[in-house]
Amino acid sequence: MSEKQEKVQSPDEQPLLEAEQIISYLKGNPDFFKTYPTLIADLNFAHDTGDAVSLIQRQVELLRTHHDTMRKRLADLATHSKNNEALLKRIQALSVATAAASTPKAILEELTKTIIKEFKLDSVYLVVEHSIWPMNGDNVVGLSPEELGKLRNAVYNLGVFVGRPSEKLKNIIFKKETKKTASIAMVRFKYKDVDTYLVIGSKDKDHFTNDMGTDFVSYIGDYLQALLSH
User: Fold this and answer.
1) Half-sphere exposure of 87 (CA within 13 A, CB side)
2) In terms of DSSP bridges, do strands 123-129 and 140-143 run parallel, antiparallel, or are they unpaired?
3) Which of 99, 125, 155 lies at the terminal end of a domain, its last residue?
4) Residue 24 φ/ψ, nearest 5 degrees
5) 3-class secondary structure, 217
6) Does 160 fall in a domain?
């Protein structure tokens, strides 16, 4: 071990250093900041230069900003990775649960149970023209072609709608349970060439917001359309 390499002691073992000791050490180790370049980002290099900012001070500030940005990006990547892994597991559970269902009614029942269980949501509704879906059920809302037209107008003809439903929209879809659903994700797809909607509801008014991503909701619509087409 060279004279410049010293054993690093734990905070409990290492006594407080005087400024003179630190100065002496840095003078004896001029390459210290080359060995530990990221340490510069945590230090404050103040210069008595009046209103002017020295070049080294600006460089240190840029380095510190870059260092903080990279740490935040790494933390965000770790969070997104965990969220994506959890989402993938839920999608797999949804696929397994519905794959064995052989009738449209069975598909909807399995889809409803799995979404409520895996995604911790409160309700799932299929909004369909009543003449092409004769099976009744608590989670099926049969509408006339005229009512389906009103529904399209209520969501501005959007293929995907997320957020808090208006009273008009609630009255079209839920009718009996307007107070139990505070926010929804709704996706339009085709069943027997007729506009059909899957509506996923939550009692939490902030669970679905109009600024959230809609990729997953769109995927559910495409997946359900494919299942019901076979």
Assistant:
1) 11
2) parallel
3) 99
4) -65, -40
5) helix
6) yes
How is 91-130 classified by DSSP, letter by letter? HHHHHHHHHT--SHHHHHHHHHHHHHHHTT-SEEEEEEEG
CA angle 181/106/119 to nearest 5° reads 40
Considering only CA atoms, which of 217, 124, 112 is closest in space to residue 177? Answer: 124
Of 213, 219, 202, nearest to 164 by C-alpha is: 202
What are 102-133's pLDDT values in tens digits?
888 889 999 999 999 988 999 999 999 988 88
The residue segments making up the domain with residue 58 are: 10-99
State pLDDT tens for residues 48-92: 555 555 666 666 677 777 667 777 776 666 665 566 677 778 888
How many domains, in total, are found in the chain? Answer: 2
% of the chain beyond a pLDDT of 70 = 73
The span from the CA of 84 to the CA of 107, in Å, is 25
Task: Give the separation between CA 65 and CA 87, rounded to whole angstroms.
Answer: 33
Tokens of 205: 């008014």
CATH number assigned to the domain comprising residue 121: 3.30.450.40
